[in-house]
Amino acid sequence: MAFLQNLQRNSGLATDPDWRKFVVRWSLVSLLLIAIAAYFSYGFFQFDEHYQVVELVGYKLGKTPKAELAWEFHDHIRPWFQPAIYYATAKALIGLGVENPFLLATGFRAVSGLCGWLAVTALMLTAYVIFRDNRQRRAAVVILALLWLIPYLAVRTSSESLSCSFLSMGVAVLLLGSAFARNGTSARNDGADEPSMAEGGMKISPAVALIAGLCFGLAFEFRFQIAFAVMGVMAWILFRSGESWRGAIGKLALMSVGIAAPIVLGTLIDRWGYGEWTIVPWNYFRTDVLEGRPSVDGGAQPLWWYLVKMNSYPLAPITFLWTVGMLVTWIRHPRHIVTWATLAFFLAHSLVPHKEMRYLFPVMPLATFFFVIAFVPGGDSRPRPAWLDAVWNRRRSWWAKALIGVNAIGLIYACSITIEPSLTFQRYVYDHFPTGCTMYVLGKETRSPFENVGATMFFYRPPNFVVHRLKDEKQLESVVGSSSENFLVVRDRLTQWTCPATSPSDVQLVYTTYPHWVEKFNWFNWLANSKRFSLYSIDVPSTATAESHLPESLSSLSDTNPKR
What pLDDT is attached to residue 219? Predict the structure, then answer.
């Protein structure tokens, strides 16, 4: 019962009605934004989000051939815990009559989004115990609800998404379920004053240690690198939480038991996924660290790469302020749990040669506290530098309003725009040819909407859908002369095209990524770096042969496509 009492008191739900209403209101705003993102944002941030998770679900559903899965599957370095969750979701939806793969993927994003929303709400509640000033608490809640990246990240089917959700929930359980000193007194559960993490004297119950460990173990199963953040939290418990050494070591042992449970369960799930016993974390460590394959395939970046890269995007005005807040927090608040969790994670990833921005996503919800810890005054007995006060005093200035506007644009874009044209194309194909058809990719160098980075997408294909590549229009003429069924031809050019060996009336442009006139404004050849497709429906002339067959010259063509 002490756990529930601490939870009610530390969150402010039982003692502060105004705070409770405030959190409920903004939590519902967060839920709405996450729901919008789950429905509309059906693209992916990075290819691994699809090939390492969704295609694995497709493999278990019988949609994706085993031989066509990415090399990570064949090297047994990807955990199956997350695909297993989505597989169960897909089977439940299929049992309800939902067969459309885009709706199944929406279900996957809804599951991720629900976990993300629970994590965001939990962090909102921790603001009550982390911060003593109401301005800080309320600022933390609003930022968690409205920062452009949070809803988008919450609904991703990537390993980073679920890992960050369970890391956040683990930290929230640790802070909300423990007892803290009040007004400098020893930790107790019945004090009338508000709890404050700043006072020290934290007492972690066995239940809190186990539950937090379970969350951290799940976060690890979704993305192994989260171990650095978890180790940072555990080190904070040992050195800075106020627990006695003996008590801290005992609670960390219980937490380790909680961490181990999902790992053991994950091993059993990996056995189901791969069809044989394997130790996926070791396989991953061997391939990524000992063999250094990501550095070989993706290149190596310098130590300072993240500090520069995170401020090189269109929303740089916000990310620059975020970066400054991060550095201020680490330097001025070295004892804070947010510092120990995020700094350990950041340093570890900075030391790894191969770097990508998505690698930092698992700590992003926790990192939103940087804005508050660094810039919002209150609860800090030390004098603040004048320039921090200057930043805070300009919170109603025109540039602050401009930042809010930039964030609003980013939020709308992230929640409602699909940034992967190939998925928009695939959705059109599924909606208009649900029983399948044959599609030809015209040209040896033509990009295919069903292929990225040398890997083929199968999950979103309708049944009986076949893709072949034609070297040139001469081979297309052979197909027209031998086929008895209509088919599709895709080109990665927008200019008008007429199929040879057919009359103009037999060729119909049914889909195009951009209108034709866009090519007139291809300044600086920007279209070369943008996927664009034109899809044509070919009506076979009535003089075609009665039996359809693939010409012998095409029999050796692969369903996959060359890298572009």
Answer: 97
Residue tagged 């960050």 (tokens): 164
Q: Is the whole model's pTM more than 0.85, yes or no?
A: yes
Count of all residues that appear for the chain in the document: 564
- In the block, residue with structure tokens 């805070």: 392
pLDDT of 501: 65
For residue 146 the two structure tokens come to: 């409205």
| CA dist., res. 344 & res. 330, Å (int) | 11
> How far is C-alpha 171 from the geometric centre of its chain's CA atoms?
19
Strand ranges of the sheet holding 466-470, from the earlier edge strand across to the other edge: 466-470, 438-442, 487-491, 534-538, 507-512
* 477-509: pLDDT as tens digits: 888 878 778 899 998 877 777 777 667 668 888
pLDDT at 305: 94
Partners of 452 in beta bridges: 455
Q: What is the pLDDT of residue 268?
A: 97
Q: How far apart are CA 459 and CA 54, in angstroms?
A: 7
Beta bridge mates, 203: 179
Tokens of 111: 């599951």
**Run of H or E residues at 487:** strand 487-491
Q: What is the mean pLDDT of each run of 10 residues along the chain (564 residues)?
A: 84 92 97 95 86 96 94 94 97 96 96 97 96 93 96 94 97 92 45 51 89 97 96 93 85 96 97 96 90 70 92 90 96 94 95 90 95 86 85 91 94 80 90 92 87 88 93 86 85 76 77 77 68 85 49 44 38
**Measured distance CA(293)–CA(296) in Å, rounded:** 5
Cα–Cα distance for residue pair 174/139, rounded to 1 Å: 22
pLDDT, the chain, mean: 87
DSSP letter at 204?
-
pLDDT of residue 484: 77
Domain extent listing, the chain: 2-416, 421-554
Spatial separation of the C-alpha atoms in residues 22 and 195, rounded to whole Å: 19
CA angle, 280 then 285 then 286, to 5° = 95
CA distance 423 to 363: 28
Q: At what angle do helices 81-95 and 245-274 cross, to 10 degrees?
A: 60
3-state secondary structure of 420: coil
* Cα-based distances in Å from 134 to 130, 197, 333, 380: 11, 15, 19, 13
In degrees to the nearest 10, what's the CA dihedral of 269, 272, 276, 282?
-20
Helix/strand/coil for 336: coil
CA separation for the pair 392, 135 (Å, rounded): 12
484: left (phi over 0), alpha (psi -120 to 50) or beta: alpha
DSSP state of 203: B
Quick check: helix, strand or coil at residue 18? Answer: helix
Alpha carbons 386 and 383: distance in angstroms, whole number = 9
Of 352, 355, 326, which is closest to residue 341 (Cα–Cα)? 326
- Tell me, rounded to whole angstroms, the distance of Cα 164 from its chain centroid: 9
Note whether 464 and 435 are within 8 A (CB): yes
Closest alpha carbon to 112 in 78, 69, 145, 81: 81
Q: How far is CA 460 from the centre of its chain?
A: 19
